[in-house]
Amino acid sequence: MKAVILAAGKGTRMRHLTADMPKPMLQVRGRPVLEYVVNGIVAAGIRELFIVTGYRAEVIETHFGDGARFGAQIVYGRQLIQDGTGKAVEIAKGFLGTSPFLLIYGDILVQPETYRHAIERFQLGDVSAVIAARHGEDVTKGGLLIFDEKFELKRVLEKPSDAQLTALREAGMINLSGPLWYNAGIYVFSHVLFEFTARLEKSPRGEFELTDALNAMLHAGHRIAGVEVRQLWLDVRDPEALAEAERLLS
After folding, report:
1. Could you tell me the pTM of the whole model?
2. Does 3.30.280.10 match the CATH number of domain 2-248?
3. What residue ranges do the domains of the chain occupy?
4. What is the pLDDT of residues 16-46, one digit of tens each?
């Protein structure tokens, strides 16, 4: 098992804080957010890491080097055009070969157990991918995940509108009276993913989206299992979330 971390973005919602550094390198209690991610992946038993860099790439690459001081082997690839997560992961294709891999965004903080649970579910061998889900988050800010009774993914809807949520409720696909499942930004994939990222077209937001590849996999008959994130989960998306991370990691 290998790991890919997506850390190419600037993080415009951080405003002036990312004027000189990429968002994953903002510090929480004296350490970059990305360092917590790397340490967590290593603690989960993965030693071969690929970091996709982009904005101020040299800040990340200089800090982590070859990964030796973190107990890992780290290599890098740069996303020169910020055209979406669906193309960002393709930069690691040569590094991965046919290996299954953990995929995570570089600004998501979780306990190492979350990675292990996702890996263990994938290793049962009956699915092509695993996606982590968080209960009760505001799905209009990210991805709505729709599962069946076996907790297998049926559909992903990126930043659904109120009208879309109402239509799904009326169709009986979701229950708006209770918490919804939010895409937690942590995945395990087999190499079959790249058959679908290669076919991606730009979304209405003008990006090649990983979630479109997930829906295409489902349409083709691939099974994608869910795992619930029950412990710490924090998307360090803005200054308020950064302050919350300082409190939670105290």
Report:
1. 0.94
2. no
3. 2-248
4. 667 678 889 988 888 999 999 999 999 999 9
